[in-house]
TrEMBL record:
The organism of origin for this protein: Thermus brockianus
InterPro entries: ComF/GntX_DNA_util-trans, PRTase-like, PRTase_dom
Protein name per the record: Competence protein ComF
Domain Phosphoribosyltransferase: 100-183
Lineage: Bacteria, Thermotogati, Deinococcota, Deinococci, Thermales
Similarity comment text for this entry: Belongs to the ComF/GntX family.
Pfam families documented for this protein: Pribosyltran
Signal peptide: none
Superkingdom, taxonomy of origin: Bacteria
Length: 195
């Protein structure tokens, strides 16, 4: 099929992800979040979706995340994604968290809305080293009003700083509670501080 499996690096015997990796996908839950695994284990999947343009991975990865969300019993009103800056969106052509969020919304039978806009630049979190937890306020602004509890989707939770800023903006938009869904978590300790 032309590519190695992005999950294990082995032979790709099914489209986008090998059968063994598909079978092994499951969501983990901690606090108000669900995620597929630590970056060291599922980083290949993140990179394939984010940089490899393997869009077909989004539905496959959304399935276990949706199951994890349903298992938590959250009464959600909608799903949205952490937005990227327009220049990044134009350069890449798509926003990976949005691809995933749309698939999650479809599987959860919930509306997807672009609630937030990113209005300020901050370096990409993986490049920031120890300074990454210090992001300026006002990084995101709401485009409109929402109600109820919302699921906020991002591809990787690094320090939790970006998610925290997006969560703050979503609460300003009217959300009563914000839950998180991620493909990968770099440090499980980051799952606690933003709650």
């Amino acid at each position: 099929m032309g590519h190695a499996c992005p999950g294990c690096g082995g032979r790709l015997d099914e489209p986008f992800l090998c059968a063994a990796c598909r079978e092994g996908l499951r969501a983990w839950a901690q606090g108000d979040s669900v995620y597929l695994g630590l970056y060291g284990r599922v980083g290949g999947l993140v990179r394939a979706l984010k940089y490899g343009r393997r869009f077909g991975l989004a539905p496959l990865l959304a399935r276990p995340l949706a199951e994890g969300v349903l298992a938590q019993g959250w009464a959600l009103s909608g799903v949205t994604a952490v937005p990227t800056l327009l220049p990044r969106l134009l350069r890449r052509g798509y926003n990976p968290p949005e691809l995933l969020a749309k698939e999650l919304a479809r599987r959860l039978h919930l509306p997807y809305r672009r609630v937030l806009v990113r209005v300020r630049y901050a370096p990409s979190q993986p490049t920031r080293g120890r300074g990454r937890a210090k992001l300026p306020p006002g990084l995101f602004v709401p485009k409109g009003r929402v109600e109820g509890a919302w699921l906020l989707v991002d591809d990787v939770l690094t320090s939790g700083a970006t998610f925290l800023r997006a969560k703050e903006a979503l609460l300003q938009a009217g959300a009563e509670r914000v839950y998180g869904a991620f493909l990968a978590v770099r440090d499980p300790a980051a799952l606690g501080p933003y709650r």
